[in-house]
Design brief:
Keywords: Cell membrane, Disulfide bond, G-protein coupled receptor, Glycoprotein, Membrane, Receptor, Transducer, Transmembrane, Transmembrane helix. The chain crosses the membrane at residues 20-41, 53-72, 92-111, 132-152, 181-202, 223-244, 264-287. One of its GO terms (molecular function) is G protein-coupled receptor activity. It is a single chain. The protein folds into two domains: 17-305, Up-down Bundle (Rhopdopsin 7-helix transmembrane proteins), CATH 1.20.1070; 318-370, no CATH class. Helix 1 crosses helix 7 (257-272). Strand 1 and strand 2 form a beta hairpin. With 371 residues, the protein is mainly alpha-helical. The longest helix is centred in the middle third of the chain and has 38 residues, at 214-251. It is globular. The N and C termini lie far apart (106 Å). The chain contains eleven helices and four strands. The protein has helices spanning 17-45, 50-76, 85-118, 129-146, 174-208, 214-251, 257-272, 276-286, 289-313, 317-321, 347-370, and strands spanning 156-158, 164-166, 326-328, 337-339.
């Protein structure tokens, strides 16, 4: 048993790098994921099972983004959580569970594309809306249960350097090290390996299919490769350091040197996982042609309606010239006659104009009666 209660960990980048990155993710990720959610819904309306996985991916990303303001505050406070134990558990649970939910749904998308390309007729019944809903529900249940252990433990830890860590302890606890191994191998490596296998199958199927155009083949390859790269670049560095920390702790539980050495790099790689929330909507909105067209139509519609509202609310040049004037309308015409009051000594001319207007009104009324 180790008697060390806390390690001397500190990072000079926490107050700058993480808050800046999270703010960028919020600014970019919130609107793009909302658009992606709408595009995925349009895919579902077209009976495309891929839209179900995309909806779940967008929901997971949006939940993650909603937790970022508190994490920004956490790092600005120099690794001090001031929002209480229960909020730490809840927001930490959402934050970390999103990593594995996102990986799982990216894997589902890869496998779905593999079946669509390699076996377009054999697995038609598998690639249905109902099946996608069942698979998505299973993914959520598995990931929630697998990552729920921290909800039953205290997750606020104070050290002798006035840090109040949320969802992290240095040195880590033994059960956390075991859970990290599970997360690394089953939550990250297993899905990523499945995606590699699916990518290889897609390449083989596309190569053998002579009816598919070269441009379409390149698009399919690009989409499959993008899925693999997102998982590798966003989540790979974090899980490498997570594995190193866990293995070194299990070998030397009382050694703080590795934790102190890896602390800053670990926090940076953890922050980089948030880029997934920006990469996901870009992936299927700008690589998937159908989703891209849906988003383009939505943006065009929004811009058109905004322009109409602006033009209807903005005063015209004539309105500006006639500002402060009193207008009169005839019963059968919408032509406006303005009478501008000024101290120019032309009161008689105004009276004459009023008399003329009254005569016009009378004549129009007579004409209306004759009709």
């Amino acid at each position: 048993m180790c008697n060390i209660s806390s390690c001397d960990v500190d990072s000079k980048v926490d107050q700058f790098f993480q808050p800046t990155l999270y703010i960028i993710v919020i600014i970019l990720g919130l609107p793009t994921n909302c658009m992606a959610l709408w595009a995925a819904y349009m895919q579902v309306r077209q009976r495309n099972e891929l839209g179900i996985y995309l909806i779940n991916l967008s929901v997971a990303d949006l939940l993650y983004i909603l937790t970022l303001p508190l994490w920004i505050d956490y790092f600005l406070q120099h690794d001090v959580w001031i929002h209480g134990q229960e909020s730490c558990k809840l927001f930490g649970f959402i934050f970390y569970t999103n990593i594995y939910v996102s990986i799982a749904f990216l894997c589902c998308i890869s496998l779905d594309r593999y079946l669509a390309v390699a076996y377009p007729l054999r697995f038609v019944k598998v690639r249905r809306i109902k099946t996608a809903i069942l698979v998505s529900s299973t993914v959520w249940i598995i990931e929630i249960v697998a990552n729920s252990a921290p909800l039953f433990h205290d997750e606020l830890f104070q050290d002798r350097f006035n840090h109040t860590f949320c969802f992290e302890k240095y040195p880590m606890q033994e059960w956390v090290a075991g859970m990290n191994l599970y997360r690394t191998f089953l939550g990250f490596l297993a899905p990523w390996t499945a995606m590699l296998v699916a990518y290889r199958g897609i390449l083989a199927a596309v190569r053998c299919n002579i009816s598919t155009e070269r441009q379409e083949k390149a698009k399919i390859k690009r989409l499959a490769l993008s899925l693999i790269l997102i998982v590798l670049l966003c989540f790979g560095p974090y899980h490498i350091l997570l594995l190193v920390r866990s293995v070194m702790f299990l070998r030397k539980p009382c050694d703080c040197s590795s934790e102190e050495t890896l602390f800053a790099a670990y926090h940076v790689t953890l922050a980089l996982t948030s880029l997934n929330c920006v990469a996901d909507p870009i992936l299927y909105c700008f690589v998937n042609e159908g989703a891209r067209n849906d988003v383009s139509r939505a943006l065009a519609s929004l811009m058109s309606s905004a322009c109409r509202r602006r033009s209807s609310s903005s005063p015209s040049h004539a309105d500006i010239l006639n500002a402060g004037s009193v207008t009169m309308e005839t019963p059968l015409s919408t032509k406006k006659q303005s009478c501008v009051y000024a101290n120019s000594g032309k009161t008689s001319s105004y009276k004459t104009e009023l008399l003329v207007m009254k005569e016009e009104c009378l004549q129009m009324t007579i004409l209306g009666v004759k009709k």
